[in-house]
Amino acid sequence: MKKRILSSLLACSLLFTAVGTPGIVFADDFDKQIEQKNQEISDLKNKQAGLQSQISALEGEVASINAEAEALFAKMNTLTEETKVLQQEIADLEVRIERREEAIRKQARDVQVNGNQTNLIDAVLNADSLTDAIGRVQAMSTIVNANNDLVNQQKEDKQAVEDKKAENDAKIVEINESQVALEAQKGELVRSQADLAVAKADLAIQQSTKEGEKSALAERKAAAEAERARIAEEERLVAAAAAETRRQEQQASNEDASATNNSADNASNNNQSSSNTNNSNSSNNSNNNTGSSNVEAPSTPQTPSVPETPSTPQVPETPVVPETPAPTPPPAPSGNSSAVIAEAYKHLGKPYVWGGKGPDVFDCSGFTSYVYRHATGREIGGWTVPQESAGTRISVGEAQAGDLYFWGSAGGTHHVAIALGGGQYIHAPTPGSTVSVSSVGAWAPSFAVRM
């Protein structure tokens, strides 16, 4: 029994030790892990502070770009108004020139038809008197001067028209350059906004990571404390089992000692009584021995061996066939011109706002980008220059419905529209206007891009 108790105690101790050791090691390492996580959290906070300064700088850049864009728009609006005035002055001059040309042509026809080639000498010779001669000379001078003034005024007006047209062309070029600068500013704005979005997303991820790590640490700490409590309870049970074993051993030892003493007393008494009976028993023993020698002790029957039950053959496991992921649907085709045009027409009449990306306000490239994104699922870029690369460059005459028209040189375009076919296009024109349909004849694009 003693051996059985000791074996049970040893097995119990080994079991508790095997189960409890990993928890002890984990608990011992937990403080180091917490310290490491605290250091990581501190580093994250430092990075967040630096990232916040970058975000502030990007926000300042965005505000500066917007201010420059507003200044360019104010300049462009001024140039546009000046251009309108020049165009009206040119129109008025052209009307006067046309009328004066008609008067000059009429006078020339009169001279040719009537042979009215009177000169100053003829006027004097044909005069009736000196007074009449002087009057004729003054009249002839007046006519000549009037004709000369008419011709000179005609030349001046024509020169004025040329000058004003040159000035108007220069202002148009300046407006186009302002538009190109605005598109470039828009590109910078889009990039800065993208950088800002990435920075903010990075900050959010870091904050989420930090919170997640803190939560994970709290869960691991609770688990470690529970593991430590479990180990302590197991150690208590082992100690209690050991104490109970020692008590049982002591009790068994006491019982063995008492039994030994009783056996000694009984043996002495038995020796005395046995001496009196030895003689009588000896004859009986001899007779008994003689009879017993002829009797065989019965043999213990052997238990027949039970045949081993044959083991059940293992059925091979059915192999698990991994699920085939559903194929990603292909993106919508980019050449769906009917869908593009239908989407574009939905926004007729919506106001132009620089930097507007929809759905309520648009600028030119914001309009084309929004339409293609919602009609075909394509991202063609946030301003004109990247949109030039969204397809294949073609001539204006080759453009079909759904293609893009561009104004300006490649790499420096300042306006974009969606071709409708038949020489028409839909676009968000300029500040103060709305999304509308126009024609190539009214404002011709520089080139087109097949989408």
TrEMBL record:
Gene Ontology BP, a term: proteolysis
Pfam families from the UniProt entry: CC_PcsB, NLPC_P60
SUPFAM superfamilies in the record: Cysteine proteinases
Segment forming the signal sequence: 1-27
Keyword Cytoplasm attributed: no
Disordered, as annotated region: 240-337
Ranges for domain NlpC/P60: 334-451
Keywords: Coiled coil, Hydrolase, Protease, Signal, Thiol protease
Superkingdom of this protein's organism: Bacteria
Bias kind Low complexity: ranges: 250-321
Coiled-coil intervals, chain numbering: 27-110
Gene3D superfamilies: 6.10.250.3150, endopeptidase domain like (from Nostoc punctiforme) (3.90.1720.10)
GO molecular function: cysteine-type peptidase activity
Compositionally biased residues, Pro residues: 322-333
Family designation: Belongs to the peptidase C40 family.
Record-given protein name: NlpC/P60 domain-containing protein
Organism: Enterococcus alcedinis
